[in-house]
Design brief:
It is a single chain. The protein is mainly α and 437 residues long. It contains 21 helices and no strands. α6 runs antiparallel to α7 and α17 packs parallel to α19. The model has no long low-confidence stretch (mean pLDDT 84).
Length: 437
């Protein structure tokens, strides 16, 4: 298991093969070397190691968290197909007027809201398309030509914190918590996550807005935005609108009806498929590589737990002198730094299983929920380089942002958000009853 873990680190860092390929390679290697169908199992002492059922490892590809995320993808792709995202953006941008600072605020708020329910990558691509005509009308050398394309990926990264389906690290954290839970369910409901994460998301957005306006002051007084288009009024579009609204409402009222958010995530898959609102071509466009990446992280956690590697790692260090505050700070900072250079999904895949082993062993007085969630949130604060996240790469490709501008802005915003998070995040989640006191 240790060899497989190091292989995952090297392959994800160096991108020897595509990241989703590393994820499925992990599953295969665990089946071959750790499962009850493995090639070396006959030579193992059953008193030392109990083989993992191979079906349990393969089941990571259809884990309930995968279904939750797939439902989110169906809604995101449908929003693009029926132009709901662009038309809502057109409507929602109108109240922000024509002042440059208000336009930036409008783009950031709307991007963040969409990123809570759509892929950060898809959201960034959508709003970059809306923003580019606006930027093209600005004079050369205007600092607003940097602030506008920068504000969208930053808001998309921050907005992903808001819901369990907002970004893959959230799903990975919930999947790991579910596997570590006695009843197999994640200990955080959809609305619970939002209750704790949305206030933080709004604080981070405020920080980002202030930093962008301080760093990139513009001489432009007014910006005119002209967005044409109208809502699709076809029967298929109305079915999609109703399904989208119904799914979100069910996610947010889980405490009232008792239907698990993972099951709710399956509803749009079935409804949109059976009504032919989403067809075979739409199914091909789903981000399957992200689902495989999440599945690889879930299987990595299963292997680390089953082999005792996590407990072994925890035993290498004396954790008794480390306070919960210091541990939260270090876990979040490690997640932020690693995610700056490698995928935030890969970072969460690698750090969460180790952190859960640390907390479950009771080596430190920190709950598993706190460890997993804070690593996931920390990874979303990484936005300093074009390679940090796909949204950053999309924005960098527009040609107006230098790597230096992105590095300075992303580092300042990420650093301030990290400091705010470690100071108020744990207390806020304890006060809201999401974390144990």
């Amino acid at each position: 298991m240790l060899s497989i873990f190091f292989l995952a680190i090297v392959f994800w860092l160096a991108e020897v093969v595509p990241m989703f390929a590393t994820a499925v390679l992990i599953i295969l290697l665990e089946i071959l070397f750790l499962s009850n169908k493995g090639i070396f199992i006959p030579h193992c002492n059953p008193a030392v190691f109990t083989p993992v059922p191979y079906k349990k490892l393969l089941a990571a590809l259809a884990d309930p968290v995968i279904i939750l995320f797939m439902g989110g993808f169906f809604l995101a792709d449908g929003a693009t197909k029926y132009r709901m995202d662009r038309n809502l953006a057109r409507v929602m941008l109108k109240p922000f007027g024509t002042r440059p600072s208000m336009i930036i605020l409008g783009f950031m708020l709307i991007t963040a809201i969409f990123s809570m329910f759509m892929s950060n990558t898809a959201t960034t691509a959508t709003f970059m398309a809306v923003m580019l005509p606006v930027m093209a009308g600005l004079p050369k050398g205007d600092r607003l030509r940097i602030a506008l394309p920068l504000c969208i990926p930053i808001a998309a990264n921050i907005g992903g914190i808001g819901t369990p389906i907002g970004t893959p690290p959230n799903a990975i954290a919930l999947g790991a918590l579910a596997k570590a839970s006695p009843d197999g369910n994640a200990p955080i409901a959809f609305i619970q996550w939002m209750t704790g994460a949305v206030p933080l998301m709004l604080i981070f957005l405020t920080v980002a807005f202030i930093v962008l306006n301080l760093l990139f002051k513009s001489d432009t007084k007014h910006i005119k935005i002209e967005l044409d288009g109208s809502f699709d009024k076809s029967p298929q579009a109305f079915i999609f609108y109703a399904t989208f609204a119904g799914t979100v409402i069910l996610w947010m009222t889980e405490a009232l009806h008792g239907i698990n958010s993972n099951i709710v995530g399956f509803i749009p898959i079935v409804v949109l498929s059976c009504t032919r609102v989403m067809g075979i071509s739409d199914l091909k466009n789903l981000e399957w590589h992200v689902l495989w990446l999440v599945a690889g992280g879930i299987s990595l956690g299963i292997g680390i737990g089953a082999t005792g590697m996590g407990e072994w790692f925890v035993g290498l260090f004396d954790w008794t002198h480390m306070t919960p505050f210091v541990l939260v700070s270090m876990l979040t900072l490690a997640s932020l730094i690693c995610s700056t250079f490698i995928s935030n999904s890969a970072t969460t895949n690698l750090l969460v299983p180790i952190a859960l082993s640390l907390t479950i062993s009771e080596a430190v007085p920190l709950s598993p929920v706190a460890a997993a969630v804070f690593i996931a949130v920390g990874s979303s604060m990484a936005m300093a380089l074009p390679i940090s996240t796909p949204p950053n790469a999309i924005a960098y490709a527009c040609g107006e942002i230098s790597a230096r501008n992105m590095a300075i802005t992303g580092s300042i915003i990420g650093g301030i958000c990290w400091l705010i998070f470690i100071l108020i995040g744990p207390s806020l989640w304890e006060y809201l009853g999401i974390l144990p006191h």
